[in-house]
Design a protein that fits this description.
Elements: H1 4-12, E1 17-26, E2 29-34, E3 40-41, E4 47-50, E5 55-59, E6 70-78, H2 84-91, H3 94-97, E7 101-109, E8 115-134, E9 138-146, H4 162-168
Parallel strand pairs: 2-4
Antiparallel strand pairs: 1-2, 1-7, 3-4, 5-6, 6-9, 7-8, 8-9
Length: 192
């Protein structure tokens, strides 16, 4: 993580700011948002749309020897900012978000809100599910983002059936009788 401009500014005693950047690759199109106001152009030329302080992030920690973490991106706004159609869309959003890539990054700024160095990725993963909550004056959407490491520890869910095996190899009939043996008692070995 080399950040020569940021380190030099800190050594000079120049005030530094920090902002969150969020990339969400929705099925309908990617969204580039940041936690400030107005558009922001980063060192790579990408323009991020400011959403103010309605976005927050939690989780995303990785510790040696622990489980892979996940991250939650929360959108919290006044009741009139998140309309009923938006909340209903979140409730039906599985096809729009599930398995799509997402990342959160941090970006440092100088006094004039100009980006110093490139942004640094904080967490990268795949969007899992979104939940919506409604209270008296606020509405909240929580987007769960799973780590790609989450899937390394688990074998895919499999059933040992002829149908599953034939999906892998149409000529493999080795599981042809497996489903019939599920409830059958088999004595092994059989001596005649």
């Amino acid at each position: 993580m080399l950040m020569p401009e940021t380190i030099a500014a800190l050594q000079r005693g120049t005030a530094q700011g920090i902002g969150w950047l969020f990339f969400m690759d929705f099925k309908s199109g990617p969204q580039w948002a940041w936690s400030g106001t107005g558009p922001l152009t980063t060192a790579d030329g990408r323009v991020w749309q400011g959403v103010g302080d309605v976005l927050s992030v939690s989780g995303g920690e990785y510790a040696v020897g622990s489980e892979s973490g996940n991250m939650q991106i929360t959108v919290r706004a006044k009741r009139d900012s998140l309309s009923d159609p938006v909340m209903r869309a979140v409730a039906r959003s599985e096809s729009e978000i599930y398995g799509r890539s997402c990342f959160a990054a941090i970006q440092f700024f100088d006094r004039n809100m100009q980006c110093t160095d490139r942004y640094q990725i904080y967490f990268i993963g795949f969007m899992d599910q979104a939940t919506a909550k409604v209270s008296a004056g606020e509405r909240e959407i929580v987007l769960n983002v799973e780590s790609p490491l989450m899937f390394l520890a688990h074998h895919p869910v499999e059933f040992y059936s002829d149908r599953d095996q034939r999906l892998r190899d149409v000529d493999d009939g080795s599981f042809k009788h497996v489903s019939a043996t599920r409830t059958k008692q088999i004595q092994w070995p059989v001596f005649n």
